[in-house]
Description:
149 residues; four-stranded parallel β-sheet
Amino acid sequence: MVSDAPGYCLQAPLELGLRQKGSCAGPLHSPIREDWGGKEARPKLEALPEIVRAVKGRAEVYLDGGVRRGGDVFKALALGAKAVFFGRPAIWGLVHSGQGGVENVLKIVKSQLDTTMALTGVSRLEDIQRSHVVKGDPYEPPPLEMTKK
């Protein structure tokens, strides 16, 4: 379904009021987390919670880019995205094996998402919560509270 509703391309929540019907307007229903900053831009998953808070439920937020695996899909959903978009893995599959390659990539990502959900005790997408994602340094030990049972 295509809508004439304004779309937004956001780098930060501050832009929410500035980008309406701007250069990013298009056939979108809701804000979409997108950027063109390349490696200099803030990581999309890092900015996502702030954008979701700034939107305050007035629209759905989608994440575009940086999604390579099912775990990335899980994190984006946990941080408030309604859905994710990804192209690069699908293009890799297409170049490698045509339509069958794209279908295989989608199966792999779905399998990875299913595995991540199972490992976190989640059986439905609707049950994915912000508490399933912990931000931290992968080289630091977990906080003491997390190790106590």
